[in-house]
Amino acid sequence: MPARLASPAPFSVVLLAAGRSTRMGRDKALLPLRGRPLWRRQRDVLRAAGAGELLLSARPDQRWALRAAGFTAIVHDPEPDRGPLAGIVAALEAAAHNRVAVLAIDLPRLPARWIAELAAASTENCGVVGRRGRTFEPLAAVYPRKMLPLARAALARGDLALQPLLQTAVDAGLLHVRRIAAREAPWFTNWNTPALP
Q1: Rg of the chain's alpha carbons, rounded to an integer?
Q2: Average pLDDT over the chain, rounded to whole?
Q3: What is the CATH number of the domain that holds 131?
Q4: Does residue 164 form part of some domain?
């Protein structure tokens, strides 16, 4: 892992690992990557990005999470099986800082510098999300706590799709868009099948 990167102001991070991994057929967090479970790689990426607080979003039945070292706290979705939006809401509610960087468990190629750069470009009132063409990358982004009312309302309505929510946040001035360069696109390949992408 790279050395810890500089951070302009404290921010929290959350590793989203509460999904049921139905396409994979086993818990993605426990997939071996270079001899260690994937959750450790992702934790180290978030630590290297300069986070002041590391949260783990996991289900109560994920026993490995209880033994996962290096996290400040475990957060649980306010409602089970509601997708990543529920994990984002839980993290924004629990975080000690006004900005929360989010990283999905199944992005094994994302480098720490992506999170560090987004954190450096964000403020307490405005987060940053990457976008390729018209598609946001919501699971490797930095969200401001001020986005919490929008996220809670979407969750309460059952509007779990993140793309419309993020566009609403951009329109409201709560998120800034960072264009994802072609050389960066492979970083956002999800690990959804047993073979490493």
Answers
A1: 15
A2: 92
A3: 3.90.550.10
A4: yes
